[in-house]
Amino acid sequence: MDRRPLGRSELVIEPLVLGGNVFGWTVDEKQGFEILDAFVEAGFTAIDTAEGYPNWVPGNPPGMSETIIGKWMKERGNRADVHIFTKVNSANKPGGLKADAVKQGFEESLKRLQTDYVDLYFSHWPDPEASHEETLGAMDTLVRSGRVRVIGASNYTAEMVRDAQETAVIKSLQRYEVLQPRFNLYDRAEFDALRDTVLENEIGTIVYYSLASGFLTGKYRSKADFGQSPRGGGVERYLDAKGEKILAALDKVAANNDATPAEVSLAWLVAQPGVSAPIASATSVEQVKSLAKGVRLKLSDEDLQTLTEAGK
Ligand SMILES: NC(=O)c1ccc[n+]([C@@H]2O[C@H](COP(=O)([O-])OP(=O)(O)OC[C@H]3O[C@@H](n4cnc5c(N)ncnc54)[C@H](OP(=O)(O)O)[C@@H]3O)[C@@H](O)[C@H]2O)c1
To answer: Model confidence at 312, in pLDDT bands (50, 70, 90)?
Structure first.
């Protein structure tokens, strides 16, 4: 398969990252294990989670996604065979990206994950109260101790990334090697604004909401379709003229390629300059198989162009 390096780091992955926000939300532990098994059986290794997933579910203990992934790795004895990406400074967590919060958040994540290292550790959201020097300093200590391999930043603007890179050079600290912005056929602005910075600085990018929370699978064509998932209502904002144009293009390209709209959406992402890999979650083994097929699908230039034009 088309393995890709993440930035200038030592991490090299197949171009699909499994989204972990569903574990403890739309997927329970047993289903989670099945999904994780199917993902590695399909030849992939990278799993994305966060200290805050899915803390929005009432009654959940903190970090259930990390806990489920940790139990799965322990039971399977496969820690060395997978890449674990997690994040600090998730919603409603006090301390933001201050050094103490990074240090403490990391220890708690490690405990839940039942491991002694993380492959890729992200600043989940920017924190205007913490300087880049403070956050990068805390992360640099974790890398030097051998417990974090590579660091990254999520939801940062190009300006924030450039400032952080400059700080890393001036202060001789680890730099953010990987970014995690939102990007999909519908939502393009955030990554479009980052692309030049990413390419110029050889930074890896794994993009989230690859399927626009399920909208790009084509299963939501009107509000009447929302009942298909607890997440249905979350795609309402896509039901507009632009969304319809994208679904029409997806249907056409899917028919040309004997594929589904979800698979075509991922194939388009994998082909975009600056994208190292899409992140997508799944709630069944069938969906995992479809995600795997999608990132391996090669679309013609004409099909790629049709899709690009549809979402402009
Ligand atoms: N850094 C950040 O701030 C941030 C923010 C959000 C997400 N993320 C990361 O990105 C990951 C992905 O985001 P996401 O899970 O919210 O959205 P997504 O990948 O855009 O949508 C995935 C959802 O679509 C449905 N689906 C997947 N494959 C399908 C298929 N073949 N056919 C039909 N339906 C399918 C499933 O939900 P149903 O079966 O329920 O329909 C699945 O949970 C997260 O898990 C997380 O790791 C990061």
So the answer is: confident
Which residue has its alpha carbon closest to ligand 1 atom 8? Answer: 208
Task: Specify if 59 maps to a domain.
Answer: yes
pLDDT tens digits for range 93-134: 789 999 999 999 999 999 999 999 999 999 999 999 999 999
8-state DSSP, 11 = -
pTM: 0.98
Q: How many structural domains are present in the chain?
A: 1
* Residue 105, domain extent: 4-217+262-300
pLDDT tens track for 171-211: 999 999 999 999 999 999 999 999 999 999 999 999 999 99
Task: List the beta bridge partners of residue 83.
Answer: 46
Smallest CA-to-CA distance from 15 within 298, 295, 300 is with 295
In a domain, 225, yes or no: no
Tell me, in angstroms, the distance from the centre of ligand 1 to residue 141's CA: 32
Q: Is residue 8 part of a domain?
A: yes
Ligand 1 pocket check: which of 127, 156, 210, 213 to mutate, most ligand atoms within 8 Å of Cβ? 213
The SS3 assignment for 204 reads strand
Distance of CA 70 to CAs 23, 47, 109, 165, Å? 11, 11, 10, 32
CATH number at residue 101: 3.20.20.100
Q: Nearest-CA neighbor of 276 among 206, 222, 190, 215?
A: 206
Question: Does residue 233 lie within any of the structural domains?
Answer: no
Atom index in ligand 1 nearest the CA of residue 260 equals 31
Which residues surround ligand 1 with Cβ inside 6 Å? 19-22, 26, 48, 124, 154-155, 180, 208-214, 217, 219, 229, 231, 262, 279-283, 287, 290-291
